[in-house]
Please model this.
Amino acid sequence: MLLRSPHAANEDPLPFELKGSLFTLTVLHLFQLDRAVIERHLLEKVKQAPGFFNNTPVVIDLEGMAEPKEGLDFKGLYELLRKHGMIPVGIRNGTPKHQAAARLAGLPVLPESRSNGQAKKPERTEPAPSRNRIIKHSVRSGQEIYAPEGDLIVLGAVSAGADVVADGNIHIYGALRGRALAGVKGDAETWIFCQSLEAELISIAGHYRVCEQFDPADRAKAAQIYLKEERLIIEHLTR
Amino acid sequence: MATVIVVTSGKGGVGKTTTSASFATGLAQRGYRTVVIDFDVGLRNLDLIMGCERRVVYDFINVINNEATLNQALIRDKRVENLYILPASQTRDKDALTKEGVEKILSELKQSFEYVVCDSPAGIERGALMALYFADEALVVTNPEVSSVRDSDRILGILSSRSRRAEQSDNPVKEHLVLARYAPDRANRGDMLTVQDVLEILAIPLLGVIPESPAVLQSSNAGVPVILDEDSDAGAAYGDLVDRFLGKDLPHRFTEIQKKGFLKRWFGGG
Ligand SMILES: Nc1ncnc2c1ncn2[C@@H]1O[C@H](COP(=O)(O)OP(=O)(O)OP(=O)(O)O)[C@@H](O)[C@H]1O
Ligand SMILES: [Mg+2]
Model:
């Protein structure tokens, strides 16, 4: 829904279409390189939960490597992970040397999630930048606002026909008349808050409800919405 | 410095051209040098409503393409001093409206006029985007019905994100709401949205409420902007609207049911 490729008109039916899509992937944070140790811990995990790695695609994150300068045998690592039911699909972070080695082994380097430096940990003295997005006006029909990796805060209203989307929570200080989708990367702990619930659709971590399914008693009330046992719960906000 | 005002709506047929003609005429009547431009390439009708369709020689696109000068294309209004019309082309294709071309004409007009009023076509395609791109202020024309309000909301989003002021992070385009074709009795019966309903959704300042009125059709058939029919309700409402735009604090008329309506309801009429 977020990334739409333009559709070429006046041509033969397309043999394929490229579309951006968002996936939740397991990330394997690697701290060291001793393959024997890694394997021992993997076996332990599998013993606790058989089928835990059931051909699971994983991204290897090298940010937490104790000895980031060490060379990495990606082929060996790849085989080890495959053997235990994981399918490495790429790496993240790591030194330029690691990244070059990964590419040679056929593993793409994915964009970093947080720090924008090299594989180094962020400086302690610098506060991490907030990933929240504040919109100081109303979101109008036809507009779509997305807050990746954080909360979305809208100081105005969200009009019918507008979409507000966040990886985190959504706070709307006006009326919610459009669609609000929180936790779109799968975070079921996210909430939606609004001053007046008149939404077309609300969704948390993919669990959605459309306007028609709302209890009329909730209409136009200040509300908080969250997930409980995979069910959307709507509660009135009282002051 | 001249002010560029776009009259826009998203939805078609809500009264943009009617409003552009009366608004521009009202500004000129009050002594401001005003030009009104028809951006509706291919469907021109501002010249009909202004009653100057027989004097159109060159149009907006001719000037953009350097086939005519502005002075050749501008039509001077016969009734009101200080008022000029720049007609649209009936034949050319909309792609002739380029950002560079429109900018060139607007900056030339801004040299000699105080107000430049741009009558936008319906929709959110090129013509509408060009009409609003250079605007300093916007009259957003809405009818009291859900689809019209929704489209106006959409246009407000575009004004705040895709106008030149938005792109250059300049002061935002100043927004004014014009609620046209308002019928208080129908609003009270719930057949139409009320003034309050519309204001709640769009949340921008109300510049004027224009009543639904037979005078509008009569005037446009006669080629006279309805503001010149001062005895009509719609003409008076446009007069107030212009005065408010120029800073007068006037109460809104034509938003309540006339007495007759009330009596009718109480004594069994409808
Ligand atoms: N206040 C009013 N009362 C009655 N009829 C009106 C009123 N305002 C506009 N109309 C009628 O509505 C029709 C459309 O008006 P107008 O051409 O001004 O709309 P527009 O928004 O410019 O349309 P378009 O999108 O096609 O350019 C016309 O027939 C006009 O006479
Ligand atoms: Mg028109």
About this structure: Chain A touches chain B through 14 residues (CB under 8 Å).
